[in-house]
Structures are given as C-alpha cells and as structure tokens.
C-alpha cells in the first residue's frame, strides 16, 4: 500500500485544472475536455465533486480515475463499443468525439446513499415509486435489491443539479429515442452484471454506478468513464453481510467517505462547503488507490511531481501542441 508520506507530499502538486489552447474546451466537475479534429482529449483532474459541487483536490485521484476507466473500457469493449483511441498519460485519454445523450444510466444493486437523489434518502422519506421502480416495504439501508434497478438521471449544466427521472419520462420528454433508450438499458445492465462478477473475485461489491452513452456513426457508444470510484460505489465483500446484520455501515472504497464526512457536518449541497482538512484528503486518496489496486489487480504507480508538466510532455510526444493560455 502506498505510504501516507507520498500522498502528503503530493498535496502541493495536485492537478486542479488545465488551460490548454487545444480546440474547444468544456470543463466538467472533474474532467477538462478539449474537442478538435473529430477527437476529444479528456484530462482527468484531481478535483473531487459531491452533491453536484466541486469540493477540493485529492492527490492522485485523476490518475486513479483515468487508469481505472481505461482498464474497464478494455475489458468491456466486446459488450458495447467505446470511444477510446489511446491513453497518452496516466491522467489523459484521447477519444473519438461522440454526440452525448443527455441522460445518465444509473444502475443500483443496493438501496443506499445520503444524497437527495439516492434511493435510500427517498425511501426513508416514504417514496416507494422511485424513478418508475416499485420498492417493497420493509427494506433496510444497504440491503440488496432482488434485481438491479435503473434510475435514469438528467445531466445538469455546469453548476446545476442532476434530476432523477423514470424511463417513461426520458421517452416522454424526448431526451432519447425509445429504441436507443432500450439499447442503453440493455447495455447498462450487461455492463453492471459483468462488472459485479469481475470485482466479486477481488472481494468487492459493485453497489451502484452510472454510465454515459453517446452516438458515433449511428451506433451506441460508451463514453466518459466506467466503474471508477467516482462513478460507482464499492464495498468490501467479505465483511458486508456481518455488518449489515448488525445494522452497521459497510466498509467503503469510494468517495462516499467524503460525502458522509460532509453530511455529518450538515452539508448536502447547499451553502458554503466546509473546509476539508488534509487528513481527510489523504484518507480519501488511500481509498481511491486501494480501489484501483483491488479492481485491477495492479500496483498503483504513484510518483510525486508536477502532474501538469508531465501531461504536457506526454501530449507533445503524440504531436498535440499544448500552448497554454
């Protein structure tokens, strides 16, 4: 396991943002996107977001997300086509430019969560029809659903809040064509089933996740990220049942740790963001890195240093001019 000292030393080198003069830039909560020549350069920064707010930066987080996504894109390319061209840097992905669909496919295997869009938050407040899914009475927090459910979400503009809706609403609002939406549902469930079985071998539970799709040459394409600690919840498998039976929280390997820390201080998205101390950032980094290693079975290559400078050098190697603003 990577030492806390290496993580602590990287606090001053986190990748907060990029400002390259490459094509057209779009800045998401975590990723900086540059579109040019039918391609998209995606730089995964170290920013962490929760409750639809950017909170701070976590050492090595961008590298974990980018390399985890690359692992899954390779593993799942036979299930659904994806947009990957190459991985020129641990924090960068070169992809084909696709037309994104304005709906995220959220697949949930367990009832949990602390955000206002989570299944448990709504269930606790009496909601039994959740995004078109009928939830049975008597469920407990962190309980497994009989079958995974899909709860689509609209993709909010930068700074806005995502909205959970039903598949019926997706069609009614004409966000996605009915035939295409059917393909998205089928692909999402197949990806979730594959991911769940793979991580189970590594003592993990894939609790829930989101998938984003786009269109390229008339075909459905998986874009953005897949089964990362940002887009997914992971729990430790062998301790889950005992902790659940005792009414305790499962061991977690995702940014739910930071969400819970904030929620315990009364922050769930509105008002000023509480200052997140270094020890919380370091612990979050450890969890991200552990998730990467457990998912992929690979040792995480953590090196202290200027991430932006390294990215610039690697992009020049593939003839991408990174003139900075």
Layout of helices and strands, plus pairs?
Layout: H1 4-10, E1 24-27, E2 31-36, E3 39-44, E4 47-50, E5 53-57, H2 61-76, E6 84-89, E7 92-96, E8 99-111, H3 119-124, E9 129-130, E10 133-134, E11 143-150, E12 153-154, E13 163-164, H4 167-172, H5 178-200, E14 204-216, E15 219-223, E16 232-236, H6 237-245, H7 256-263, H8 278-296, H9 307-317
Antiparallel strand pairs: 1-2, 2-3, 3-7, 4-5, 6-7, 8-11, 8-12, 8-14, 9-10, 12-13, 14-15, 14-16
Helix pairs in contact: 2-8
CATH architecture: 2-Layer Sandwich
Strand-residue proportion:
25-35%
Question: What integer value in Å does the Rg equal?
Answer: 19 Å
Low-confidence stretches: none
Determine the N-to-C terminus distance: 38 Å
The biggest sheet amounts to:
7 strands, antiparallel
Q: For the residues shown, what is the average pLDDT?
A: 94
Going by CATH, what is the homologous superfamily? Answer: ATP-grasp fold, B domain
- Tally of DSSP β-strands: 16
CATH class equals Alpha Beta
Portion in helices: 25-40%
- Count every helix, treating DSSP H or I runs of 4 or more residues as helices: 9
Question: How many structurally independent domains?
Answer: 1
Q: What shape does the CA trace take? A: globular
Question: What is the string of SSEs from the N terminus onward?
Answer: HEEEEEHEEEHEEEEEHHEEEHHHH
């Amino acid at each position: 396991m990577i030492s806390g000292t290496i993580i602590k030393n990287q606090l001053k080198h986190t990748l907060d943002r990029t400002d390259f003069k490459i094509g057209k830039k779009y800045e998401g909560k975590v990723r900086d996107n540059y579109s040019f020549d039918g391609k998209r350069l995606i730089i995964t920064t170290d920013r962490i977001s929760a409750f639809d707010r950017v909170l701070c930066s976590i050492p090595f987080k961008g590298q974990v997300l980018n390399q985890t996504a690359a692992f899954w894109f390779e593993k799942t390319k036979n299930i659904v086509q994806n947009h990957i061209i190459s991985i020129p840097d641990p924090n960068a992905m070169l992809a084909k430019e696709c037309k994104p669909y304005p709906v995220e496919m959220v697949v949930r295997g367990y009832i949990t969560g602390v955000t206002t869009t989570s299944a448990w938050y709504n269930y606790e407040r009496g909601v039994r029809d959740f995004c078109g899914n009928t939830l049975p009475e008597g469920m407990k927090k962190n309980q497994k659903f009989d079958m995974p459910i899909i709860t689509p979400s609209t993709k909010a503009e930068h700074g806005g809040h995502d909205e959970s809706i039903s598949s019926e609403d997706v069609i009614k609002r004409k966000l996605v064509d009915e035939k295409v939406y059917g393909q998205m549902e089928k692909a999402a469930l197949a990806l979730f089933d594959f991911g769940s079985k793979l991580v189970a071998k590594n003592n993990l539970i894939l609790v829930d996740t989101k998938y984003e799709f786009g269109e390229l040459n008339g075909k459905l394409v998986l874009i953005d990220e897949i089964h990362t600690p940002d887009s997914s919840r992971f729990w430790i498998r062998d301790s889950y049942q005992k902790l659940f039976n005792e009414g305790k929280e499962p061991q977690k390997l995702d940014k739910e740790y930071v969400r819970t820390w904030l929620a315990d201080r009364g922050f769930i998205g509105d008002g000023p963001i509480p200052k997140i101390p270094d020890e919380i950032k370091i612990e979050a980094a450890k969890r991200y890195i552990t998730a990467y290693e457990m998912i992929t079975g690979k040792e995480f290559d953590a090196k202290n240093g200027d991430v932006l400078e390294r990215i610039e050098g690697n992009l020049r190697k593939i003839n991408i001019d990174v003139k900075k603003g």
